[in-house]
């Protein structure tokens, strides 16, 4: 533990200097370090000992020092991208959309015009310098760093991430795509994302990319704090496709205002070795939150998707819906919790899973808590396999087993993918097809 | 086009229980065969065994089509060889939209590209009383019995198989759909498709001459009688129990 203290101390000083960060932020980091030493550790996969090892030796060996373009990737990764036909898509977006690099965000013309109307997208470090008051009042306000060792560690060494601010009443008509592409060092393993939707604003942020994220570390801890103002309509879609050596622990917290809505979709195509998430939301009067999870479990990966919704205002509603395709020896657990704390609230949890092998495992623990008498809470779960009759029907028309299976799996996931733009759908479908036919 | 089907002393079991107990049947290119028989006599089992359903295990004999032994061939390869079964009870396939499915089938069997297939599917479907939006529904999900049968026929018309096996295409279908379905079957047969039609009613055939039809009657997993088309009327008049007195002593 003492080793960890001095390693983290050094990292904090390094970050403070590199980011030319104001003292108040560095102070938050130092406090988080103290919290880290005392905080409980309760991860289902990573032991405390392992965590300390990750902190001491965060980098994965054998990956290139610097990944500046797709050409720097190891050959097998590049081949995978080619097979997916991703390189082209990505290139198109590199040219056309906002891309976060280690040195800043590359804007296109579109974003520049919208910046004048009140759409701010900045690297979080830059936002700390440029809008200190706004960041101060929104940084770590929805989560307590001392709640767990991982939350505290994230807070001490956070680096990277974006700050998105949408002015009151501004409706952004196109989805904002953000790619996190170049990650220079192990310190970039903990991006911090702040989303502020002012009242009555509207936007759709799509985060991440479906190609393997280029990371050199074994533990990825990202944190998202979303403030959805009264009457705002916000959508956050996160596409994850992690390399198999990474453990990922996304931490999301959102506060949804009166009559606002927040639709949070996570598409987990490559979960990494393990993926444990327990996003938490509070929803005010008349507000709505949706957590839509699409999960592809492969190999021996462990995926644990929670989701806690507190319906605090009258008439608030929450939906936690997941669809999982579970292959090989992977294990998926869903444990959504919806708590009705005001009259007239509604909550629903649904969990559908398609088991693709005898060794695949699925568990679901829906949690519904009602603190009031007038609330409607319900849940449903369906865990099954592809039926022989379905497969035979498709095969009897000339499709081989692999193609028939792919059609059924894509059909199973389709209802959850309705909000995702077409360019991504093409990639997502290809990744699903390849996974089903064992080609990943 | 063309290709002869030879079913030789076929035995087939489901869940360890023998259902087909030595079926012999030869269907030459372009021929029209009708298979009749009481419920439970093994008609559907014969159809599903020829199509290669994994539940129906062949325990003896063989199936030859176009000179190839297909007895152990997986179902999709039989389909590629030209065998098509229109099911008695077409299953629902959750989530898979008809349009996407048919486009892929036409790509697989005919090498058609997506746009070409799309046009053909829309045109053919309209001709068979489907609305365009029906094609974006998942296969058979929430379809009435009659709609399912029409969808089976739509697929047959699109694929134009060499051998079309129809398992009671007339059951659960209203009068208007019935005449559409029989017209399509006869049309395919005129264009050279061999047909095995499993049915309880001769009424389905309007334009075919009795001398162009062979009628087989099944009993307890075997074909026990084979006659000409005029036999259909006789079966309808007398019923199976009476007919069986002629061949099998009636039991
Ligand atoms: N999948 C199955 N599982 C169990 N028994 C079956 C199955 N399919 C058919 N059988 C049995 O085989 C016999 C013949 O059935 P079937 O071929 O459906 O007859 P038909 O189509 O002539 O009415 C019946 O006794 C039926 O119960
Ligand atoms: Mg039958």
Briefly summarize what is shown:
Chain A is α/β, with parallel strands linked by helices.
Would you kindly provide a written description of the structure presented here, covering whatever features stand out?
The complex is a heterodimer of chains A (440) and B (251). With 440 residues, chain A is an alpha/beta fold. Chain A folds into two domains: 2-399, no CATH class; 400-440, no CATH class. Chain A contains twelve helices and 25 strands. The two termini of chain A are 38 Å apart. Chain B has a domain at 5-88 and 162-248: Rossmann fold. In chain B, 36% of the residues lie in helices and 26% in strands. Chain B has helices spanning 43-51, 75-81, 98-110, 114-127, 145-159, 175-190, 231-238, 240-248; strands at residues 5-14, 17-27, 32-36, 56-65, 68-69, 83-86, 163-167, 194-198, 213-219, 222-228. In chain B, helix 3 (98-110) crosses helix 4, helix 5 packs parallel to helix 6 and helix 7 packs across helix 8 (240-248). Chain B is globular and about 55 Å long. The model of chain B has no long low-confidence stretch (mean pLDDT 94). Chain A binds chain B through residues 387-390, 392-401, 403-404, 407-408, 410-415, and chain B through 51-55, 74-76, 78-80, 84-85, 87, 90-97, 100-101, 104-105, 108-109, 138-139, 155, 159. Bound molecules: adenosine-5'-diphosphate and magnesium ion. Magnesium ion binds next to helix 1 of chain B.
